[in-house]
Amino acid sequence: MADQISLMIRTADGTRKSAVALPQDLTIEQLLQATQQRWNLPSNTSYNLRLERTGQQLNPSATLGSVGLQENDVLEVLPNLEAGQK
């Protein structure tokens, strides 16, 4: 297994995107926190990552290397909305 994987990360609405090479031992939660901070996403909202190729929502405690990512996969940052939220 390679030490790094190249990915495209983007917001669900497509307004922000970034091509990155990340260590495979990085957790989904760490990636979400870094993305939220770098893109100045609202801190009062929680986010999930979805693998565009499969539609799978990724477990925050999993590492990039453990979720079956392929080179140049696209990960979407999605706000975690609760029913009834406005």
For the biggest sheet, the summary is: 5 strands, mixed
Helical stretch tally: 1
Helix and strand pattern: EEHEEE
Q: Average the pLDDT over all residues and give the rounded result.
A: 92
CATH class annotation: Alpha Beta
Helix share, percent: 10-25%
Radius of gyration computed on alpha carbons: 13 Å
Distance between the termini: 43 Å
Uncertain runs are: none
Pfam families: Rad60-SLD
InterPro entries: Rad60/SUMO-like_dom (IPR022617), Ubiquitin-like_dom (IPR000626), Ubiquitin-like_domsf (IPR029071)
Organism: Planktothrix agardhii CCAP 1459/11A
Protein name: Ubiquitin-like domain-containing protein
Please outline what is shown here.
The protein has 86 residues and is mainly β.
Describe the structure.
The chain has 86 residues and is mainly beta. The protein has a single domain, classed as Ubiquitin-like (UB roll), CATH 3.10.20. Helices cover 13% and strands 34% of the residues. The chain is built from 1 helix and 5 strands. The protein has a 5-stranded mixed beta sheet with strand order 2-1-5-3-4, covered by helices on one side. A hairpin with a 4-residue loop joins strand 3 and strand 4. The radius of gyration is 13 Å and the shape is globular. InterPro entries: Rad60/SUMO-like_dom (IPR022617), Ubiquitin-like_dom (IPR000626), Ubiquitin-like_domsf (IPR029071).
